[in-house]
Design a protein that fits this description.
The complex is a heterodimer of chains A (200) and B (364). In chain A, 26% of the residues lie in helices and 26% in strands. Chain A is of the alpha/beta class. Chain A has a five-stranded mixed β-sheet with strand order 3-2-1-4-5, with helices on both faces. Chain A has a three-stranded antiparallel β-sheet with strand order 6-7-8. Chain B is α/β, with parallel strands linked by helices and 364 residues long. Chain B contains eleven helices and eleven strands. In chain B, the strands form two sheets. A five-stranded mixed β-sheet of chain B has the order 3-2-1-4-5, sandwiched between helices. Chain B has a five-stranded mixed β-sheet with strand order 8-7-6-10-11, with helices on both faces. Chain B is globular, with a radius of gyration of 20 Å. Chain B starts with a strand and ends in a 34-residue tail after the last helix. The chains are: A alpha/beta (200), B alpha/beta (364). At the A-B interface, helix 1, helix 2 and strand 9 of A face helix 2, helix 3 and strand 9 of B. Strand 9 of chain A pairs parallel with strand 9 of chain B, so a sheet runs across the interface.
Amino acid sequence: MGRLNTVLAFDTSGPHCAAAILVGDDLVACRVDPMTKGQAEHLMPMLQGLLAAQGLGWSDLTALAVGTGPGNFTGIRIAVSAARGLALGLSIPAVGVSGFEALAHGLPRPVAARIAAPRGQAYMQVLRAAVDDAPSLTEASIAPPAGIPLAPEASPQTLVGNIARIGLSRLGGPVPRPAPLYVRGADAAPPRDPAPVIVP
Amino acid sequence: MDRQRIILGIESSCDDTAAAVVRGVPGAAEVLSSVVYGQADLHAAFGGVVPEIAARAHAEKLDHAVEQALGEAGLDLSGIDAIAVTAGPGLIGGVLSGVMCAKGLAAARGLPLIGVNHLAGHALTPRLTDGVAFPYLMLLVSGGHCQFLLVEAADRFQRIGGTIDDAPGEAFDKVARLLALPQPGGPHVEREARSGDPARFRLPRPLLDRPGCDMSFSGLKTAILRARDEAMAGSGTLSTTDRADLCAGFQAAVTDVLTEKSRRALEHYLTLGPPTPTLAVAGGVAANAAIRAGLQRLCAGLGVTFLAPPLDLCTDNAAMVAYAGLERLAAGAVDDLSLGARPRWPLDERSPAMLGSGKRGAKA
């Protein structure tokens, strides 16, 4: 029997734990559990259950695909850290897929992808046939550049399925370790009080 | 005798990303490897650890640290019996990354997963380094913690005193910032103090006049700020002599408080009649030579063994986490894949809370 690629995809960049299993070209399982907290506790048992329901175990996987955000900072670290641990433990690649790529999957390029950010803002990226633009953080109301359509919104179910398919498409080449896509820098300010001038 | 086990430990609760491999049985174990990736450079510009910066670094370094620790131990994951990970207390972003990475490894290899209290890791280190017998007295003194623990068993800790506000390490860092010294402040303040006059500035010894083993270091920081501003009055600058004297005065005050409170903690401990009376220290502040000398003199006078683990096992590391995991595994205490991360997790949950309350719970 020819061995089909079995890809487990998961994403915790929004208020949910989302997961999908792709066997060959078939999406055989998909599940989204909405939650605003508790993803760290929920994710791994959920993945294990999803695999078991298909008669699969961790060692049946040929690759992982993980949503890297942007989104909730803690959420994207939960999924990425789990993916890195699993990849090391299973000696299989983990492919990082951004939320922009998941939204734009299957759409003609160029296309703009927009993801809601806190405080009335949005993350936006223009994906092109060759090199994508750098993602940015903008006001939520700002439209994409003229002439570039906006990718329609998609459900977490659709997005995690797309993450799995994009992950599968990247196998074969070198796969860098997944890393969270923050877009926004860490909130950090230098100390308020200046240090004194020291004289001999 | 128990079977020898090999434990992989993971630590990411503050600003060190660490992984280590420990082999042995409770009370007789050895460190096969211990890898620590520090983050001092990332935080240097901010005068202290920035939680979000720390969390970002942990998430992308943990698996590398694990690979290096396995490599240095000459093992791969098939040689590991269990995965131990710091599940709290600490900066939650980093703890979460460590817990998730550990879960991934444990699930992938079908290995037991053990969530370890970071403070238990410190408190059990004397068992790892010297096989010390229970009960012993532990002074845990670092950038985030300061408490006396009576270590009665691997899972039984009684807190008999601690800071009611800041930890001394935090105070060393703050004093360094006030005096234009680099972070982390401990080693720099100590170096300056060597050439300073500890008696020139009159600084308080907070809570020394009160009975018991509780401490306070917040007022000492304020006192240093006042003394510095007085020294700078007129010129607007601080001389190197003033700075050295301030450092020496501060270090002497911290040493006096820790030594006197340790004496009281030891008096209580000795009433229990321990067969091999031992005071052990852990935490970065325990590296300070003046503080160490004060505690050594105290112990020598009372006929108590003073034990300071090597510096790399005193400060944050993953070997202590692996060892604490070894003790828990031997006791059959294993977690499952729903293990959570706890920002606050007092080691002694029987004593009344000293710090923190409300929805987030007690800190210590």
